[in-house]
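Posted in: Protein Modeling Q&A

I'm a second-year student putting together a small comparison for a lab meeting, and my supervisor asked me to include a predicted structure for Tetratricopeptide repeat protein. I've never done this before, so apologies if this is the wrong subforum. The sequence is pasted below exactly as I got it from our records. If anyone can share the structure token output, I'd also love a short note on what stands out.
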Amino acid sequence: MTPPTVETIRRAMADNRGMPNGEARNAHAESIVDQADALGDQPTVTEALITLIEAYEYSAESHKLLVPFARLLRRYDTAPEHYDDEDVSGLFWYFKWATGGMLDNPDVPLAAVEHWLAEMRRRYTQAGYGMHAVLKEEWWIADHVGDTARAGRAFTEWRSTERDRMSDCLACDHNAVGEHLSHRSDAEALEAWRPVLEGDLRCAEEPHRILADSLLPLTRLGRVEEARANHLRGYRMVRGDDSLATSVAMHIEFCALTGNEARALEILAEHRRHIDGIRNAGSRRRFLEGVAVLLGRLTDSGRGDVAVPGPGDEDWTAARLRDVVLADLEELWRRFDARNGSDSVSGAGRARLAVPPFAEPLPLGVTTATPATMPVTAAAPPVTAEPPARAEDLPALIAEATALTEAESPDARDAWLRIDRLATGAGVPLEPLAEAAAISARGRDLVLTDLDTALALWRRAAELYTDNGRPDMATIRETWILTAQALHDEPVLADVDELLRSVRRSHETGTTPGRVLAIVLVSRALLEVTAATHDSSPERLTETLHRLAEWQAELPGGEDDRPSIRRHLELMFMRAQVLHLLGDAEELHRTGLAAWELAVRIEDGSEQVRAAALIVGRVFAESGAEEAIRIASTALAADTRHEHPHQVAELHLASAQIRMSLAEWDPALSHARDAGDRYERVGNDAAAAFSRHLVGVAYLEKDRPAEAATVLESVLPELDASEPEAAFNARNALCRALLELEEPQAAAEVAAVAAAACKDDPEPSRYAHFASMAAEALLAAGETEAAAAAAGEAARAWRQAGHLPNVAKLGRLHAGAATDEATASRELLAVVEELTTALVDPEQPSENLTILHRERGLTYREAAHVLWRRLDEDESTDLDGRGEVLRRSREAYRDFEAAGDVVTLRWLDADLVWQLAEAGDAAGAAAHAASALDRWGTESGVEDVRARLEFARDAVAGTGADA
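Accepted answer (user: helix_wrangler)
Welcome! Here is the predicted structure, written out as tokens:
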């Protein structure tokens, strides 16, 4: 093995600074110190120790920096000549890190921590630094041990002391101010964090930490949109960074308390190594507290057997892992409390674990890989809390519910369910008719989950009604029983038909009310449509349409009878279902419009939702966005019962798409998010993912690429499986978002996946598009060889697609990845030839000429710049080369004139001034400058162009600064 040298060690230190934070970087830094010690060059040892301290600080092993820091300080005291000014400044800076590291290690006595603080104060004073950083450390210590009086004094002194070179950056100081204020007021803390949250201040760790700190305060204050955005944006920043494990835990805690346990589990799975891998006791404690909140939420809500990510890459049950985590926390709390002489740490930790979840779930708009045993918690429709009732309220409640029943109000069932709960809870028996109504409502509530119990309740209700003089109500219960049995494939259809015949006869004699006949007719129609749907043959479906028309004609009731109109609507919606299966779009739309008019007439929001879902798409196509939005908005606003969640989701999705067509991104985002959450609740994962990919697109259009990327990444697995077209759209948006986030390597990977998926697509433009994006991303990532290959492939695909402007763009990109000027010029001029051939083609459509001229102009200009840069780098006075630069620019100028591209012409004028002079034509340069200033100099809004021209003119004339 080659012995280390100063140069090889310094290269290793530079490499270390570019490594990701974590154990690998730490181990590499430790080896550098060993090499420096072996070499024996003392300044190099100093630099190696600094490298190790910095690696430790930005990892989950920050407690380890105490040893190299103590050594660095001791060496400074004994041999300061081995330290340059930068080393000395770093040494004093690391005092702050050392104090924090001691505080996070409960095995370091508090007296030792105070000693180091005093030492920091003494040395800062001797070195001429102020007390700003020292007072902040004092506040930090006092706050940690729960000495509120001292913490308050130190905080006040710190904030009133002048900043100096040893002060933390402003972003970090705002973090600390917010943390101090958060003890008394969420609003005050958020105000302190505002400059960081709004992007005015940032550093290596901010806004990462403050975004996490702000999540629960924002949610408590009802600022849920900001909380959601800070999670989507902030988690990307802390994901995978060992030094920010505490912030990761805050995201886990936030998700657990806002009804997003599945999302919290995904985050935990990505950081499961931290459960038993964090060596810093303070960071470990804070991380495990966040995990314990999640595990407590699962266990306390009856999901203790859910599989969760545990240590050792194994899945544990939530209950088992919770026991282990709590035991670890108890031991950590004990150690910190013993060291601190207070219960400040354990008290804060127990309070954190005792926080209840928020009453209203907060949908995040992301798709999660939800474990099978994890029920998805999504935002429920708003529920009006019923006022507390007492047993003595029963008579009034029964009277109200009875009136609702007689009026056939949709609210009757909820009224009877409330009575049933109250009577059962109070142990109060109901009189027979009230009992029959109450248990009927309970049966309807159970029919989808416990059919046998529901049937038994309805049979008992039918007996009570029969025995108490209400055979009509008994018949309705019998209808429910037979319908439910038939829908569960029991052979009772003949019994239903016999019941219908019997009711018809008794209705004709006046012994059975019309509403009973109507209910039986609607139930029979439901069974008919169900059977026809299963059969699905056109003949059977057509026959069903005829039967529906006959039953609808038979329905009793007047035109102004709301219950009767609702039953007509039921049959109309059944008719729409059959028409959809038959593919009769015209008749389906007519039926939907008729249903909409009826639903609006009776002011029934639930029925308006069903009707609007049938017609809104066609209305948008035929009558425009305004009318479609009016219908969807009217229905959604009127719907208070939320009986048809799938149709509500459809309306939100349609509204999102319509708003996006108008570039109305805020309402589009809101509707798309609502659609995704509602589809998820009804189990339609494909539609949920489709809706959420629109959320990502809307975020991107709102210039919020971090949120966009988070959402789009989450939906791709489901879209790949169920919505391949949407998956391409999502990857396109994700690539754009990642490029805006300056994550070109990730963007290139996404584009490559998309390109591979559509390489055999008969339409080559899609493949060409993603190959182009991959080339652009690879070039941004500095991978010029791969970028050149991707650009060449994309250009071939665009050529196959017959899209010459994009061929030109890719040609320029390909040339930009070339390693020498000759290759780049050759490739660019080849593109020029191709564009020239197209321009002189007599069959070229005239509308293409402007675009082709502009593309040739851009390519000529790039060819001029490539050669110009090479000549300048070589400090060449070759007039032939300078003349070729000028020729290319003049050709570009002519093309931009032909294309009418005034903006580019203005900038090219300044280039021409320089190039004329460098080609030996000083008079021509001066004349061109004067002409250009005449042309553009008086226009408003072109100050930069004018200044550039004046600078070029003066420099060329020898009166200005050097070029």
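A couple of things worth pointing out for your meeting: The longest strand covers residues 307-309. The mean pLDDT is 91.
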